[in-house]
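Internal tracking record. Fields below are filled automatically when a chain is submitted to the structure queue. Please do not edit lines marked as system-generated. If the sequence contains nonstandard residues, flag them in the REMARKS field before resubmitting.
Queue: standard
Priority: normal
Entity type: single polypeptide chain
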Amino acid sequence: MDQCGANSKCQCGNSRNTSTSFSLNRRQFIQLAGMAVLAAGAHRRVMAGPFQADPGHPVPVDKKLDPAWVRGLFKRGEKEVFSGADLEPIGMPCSGIGSGQLYLCGDGRLGEWQICNDAGSHWIGYTGSTYERRKPPRPFFQEFALLYCHDGGEGIVRLLNWESWESVTFRGEFPVGTVTYRDPAVPVWVSLEAFTPWIPLSAEDSALPATILEYTVHNDTEWPIEVSVAGLLENLVYHNSRDIETAIWRTLRWHRTPERVQARFGVRLPTEAELAATPPPREDIVFADFEGEDYGDWKTEGEAFGKGPVSGPVGNQQPVSGFEGKKFAGSFQGSDELTGKLISP
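SYSTEM-GENERATED OUTPUT FOLLOWS
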């Protein structure tokens, strides 16, 4: 290859000149490519081989694996523990076989809840939205809570989620997820093991359509503390139709045996007498709208919302629908570069 000095016309020796280009002939390119391949392989660890071709069997029985590499496969690594903001996008599948999709979230709550023949997908084609960092959806209310008291004193309640404890950690070792809750202000700490019973060589247990949550409360103090763990769960039956005005009443029935307590959620149709005694729904109360020429008492910042409500698309904007009345607050004023805020009074 030609060597060029700093004063050469090609200027490739001038590190400050970023706009200069140079060309290679075919022979020079092949030489460079070969050097790159050798450099890439120089630091690569050889795991197996070398081999001699066996015409009778294309895959050799003796893989000649490097003993050091094999030992590395069985070497114990360090358990990966997540905390803080890393908990938000965690969703570990924890539902039983054939029972839909249920996630164990990073703070021990349950998410996704695709168990009512309502399987969905986050796939949005070959777009960046498909791979965005997102929190598992939690379509209805569900929590667990710790109640504790000392020496007959007043009971204190702490929800078992990341907002209520100073330190929450998650360790995923599928199919078992472990969550811990610690706080210097609380005399006990809690650990949760959540899993579905996938047990090797036990098809009967592995086929249970169940999610098991085992809570353990640890008392590291020198005095006794009374504790209870409570579960809170909204009735999810017919939850996809909660916004539809229909005469459906949700029910909750308890079934108690010496071994267990079961909560059975359901729905039923009300009787005519129950319907007659039910007051009609209250009409919506409008406290503000966007039907005027300007935003009234609403405060605008920036340029995105313009000077007032609009009645349709602005510029080359796509058709807009789904709003009530004749106008709406639009944050598109002909350009995607505008930013701003619209603050209610």
